Amino acid sequence: MNPLPHFKKIRIPPLLIAPALIALATFTAVPARATPSCGLTSTNLLSPVPAGYFASGLLNLMCRSNLPDWLLHTRVRGDSDLYVTKHTFPVGAHTGWHTHPGPSLITVVAGELTVYESDSPNCTPTVYHTGESFTDVGCGDVHLVRNEGTVQAMDVAVQIVPAGAPRRIDADQPASCPVISCP
């Protein structure tokens, strides 16, 4: 004797399965997709591209200045590529959500740029004006840079990335940040 209860087989007509699958697909949450840049122009300032190559150990630097309270300490394991780029942002242009595989040093050389960091509380933006600089550690730090000013903006970025790696990695729209569309 079979100890499991007996269940009656139910036959579902194929015509009922298709609408059920369509309804399931319609109401299932879909993750946000990567966001492309909008209106941004990138120019490599040094040739060849990448502009420099540093073998493992060449970026292991330590410098204590004769000026008070200044110390540089950098240690990179693995080969690295160096890029120097200029980014031109017409009003409303943005980078799309992205990260980099290594750090970037960025200086705003014209206009102002608004930076959204996905991990900041409520995705609160920071505005940088001509002559101001900021850093991007990369390594999964997802962000978007946008010209929310009234004139064209530009920055210059120096990036150090693992040799052979792409400079930019597209990222999905963070749930905690506003959707920033292309004008």
Q: Mean pLDDT score, rounded? A: 86
* Strand residue content: 25-35%
Estimate the global geometry from the Cα principal axes: globular
Main sheet record = 6 strands, antiparallel
Give the terminus-to-terminus CA distance.
72 Å
C-alpha Rg, in Å?
24 Å
Q: Return residue spans where pLDDT drops below 50 for at least 5 consecutive residues.
A: 5-10, 14-32
Structural class: mainly beta
Continuous helix count:
1
DSSP helix fraction:
under 10%
Number of strands: 13
Could you characterize the architecture of this molecule?
- This protein is mostly beta strands and 183 residues long.
- It is 8% helix and 35% strand.
- The strands form four sheets. Strands 1, 2, 5, 7, 10 and 12 form a six-stranded antiparallel β-sheet that branches. Strands 9-8-11 form a three-stranded antiparallel β-sheet, with no helix packed on it.
- The termini are far apart.
- The model is unreliable at 5-10 and 14-32 (pLDDT under 50).
Question: Summarize this, please?
Answer:
Helices cover 8% and strands 35% of the residues. It has one helix at 14-27, and strands at residues 41-44, 52-54, 61-64, 71-74, 80-89, 98-99, 104-110, 112-117, 126-129, 133-136, 143-146, 153-162, 169-170.
List keywords for this structure.
183 residues; mainly beta; six-stranded antiparallel beta sheet; three-stranded antiparallel beta sheet; 1 helix; 13 strands; globular
